[in-house]
Design a protein that fits this description.
This protein has 151 residues and is an alpha+beta fold. Helices cover 16% and strands 37% of the residues. Strands 1, 2, 3, 4, 5, 6 and 7 form a 7-stranded mixed β-sheet that branches. β2 and β3 form a beta hairpin. It is globular. The model has no long low-confidence stretch (mean pLDDT 90).
């Protein structure tokens, strides 16, 4: 009995792409969620939570802190693990570990100046009641609702 080789991947698929570990930071303060407008593919131009790839030798918690600061200018502390998502598409496969995060200083009632950087084209605090109506990356609203972040 001979084994057949697996079929060749479809053109433009993520087959053969090694999954990369990435993180996301869910930062909620004063009833608003910290969002960044993606400046790079995939889903360039849509809104997401701050995050990105875990670098070699870095813990996921350290990546949350670094990526949030790079993309927003906000220093945060990484909190508990919220959940994970798989994002697979043409030329990419990300396993994203999402964590709660909070500003490293008390900003209650104060909105520190944010600055978009890294892969973020824009950064904003969006009221929780308005997040679902924002042009979010695929699956983010459902993920946040399922974990009780959004109503």
């Amino acid at each position: 009995m001979s084994r057949q080789p697996p079929p060749a991947p479809a053109p433009g698929s993520a087959a053969g792409i090694r999954p990369q570990v990435a993180v996301g930071a869910v930062v909620v303060t004063d009833g608003a969620l910290l969002l960044v407008r993606r400046g790079q593919p995939p889903e360039e131009g849509r809104w997401s939570i701050p995050g990105g790839r875990v670098e070699e030798g870095e813990t996921p918690a350290d990546a949350v802190v670094r990526e949030t600061f790079e993309e927003t200018g906000l220093a945060v502390r990484c909190g508990g693990f919220l959940g994970w998502v798989d994002r697979v598409g043409p030329g990419h496969h990300f396993v994203i570990l999402d964590f709660l995060a909070e500003p490293s200083v008390d900003i209650t009632g104060v909105r520190p100046e944010l600055r978009a950087g890294g892969d973020a084209a824009e950064v904003a605090w969006v009221a929780l009641a308005e997040v679902a109506a924002t042009d979010l990356v695929s699956g983010l609203a459902a993920f946040l609702r399922a974990r009780g972040v959004l109503p």
